[in-house]
Amino acid sequence: MAFNIADILPIIIIVLTVLTSIKGFNDMAFFDRYKFQVGAILGKSKQWDRLLTSATLHGDYMHLIFNMMTLYFFSSVIIQSLGIWQYLTIYFLSIIGGGLLSLWVHRKEYYYSAIGASGGVVGILFAAIALYPDMTLGVMFILPMKGWLFGILYLGYSIYGMHTRQGNIGHDAHLGGAAIGLILAVVFAPVILQIHTLYIGIMIIPLIVLAYLVLRKK
Description:
71% of the residues lie in helices and 4% in strands.
């Protein structure tokens, strides 16, 4: 049986994330050292590694399972359509992009902290939606719907949640990841701008609103 890195790579990421998250569940010192925290990143210690390490930690098993299931289901779409290196680039840059947006939004709140791979997972999800906007999303989502419609609703809800500080959810990290996922999908497959012009254009509108809200934040 031939070894296929494309099949095993997402599993490796998921297994490492699960193991690190479980370590964090049982070791508070480990959890505190590697979680996203504005003060630790922008303060004297300058621990910029937290932008990535925080993605390997989760708040509870439900948070972990939901993220890893979503990552598993959509990883193959990106790898088969774009390639392994493109997949890794989208995943890790979406994590970093989500972290940087969160850092900017909460830059004056040194106590603010967050954890989870959601930025990277949402980046992979939105890259898949950009490639196949007509695909139906179901199973883990409440109502089956077209990818482009889910994208618009998700972005709208996340912008509202970020603006109103609603719920214990890192909406800004999700939005940063979604934006990077969409952008990189276009960078790696520019032909989709011609094929899916309307759908991508519609999903860009909420991101323009996001940019306005972020830039006007003093």
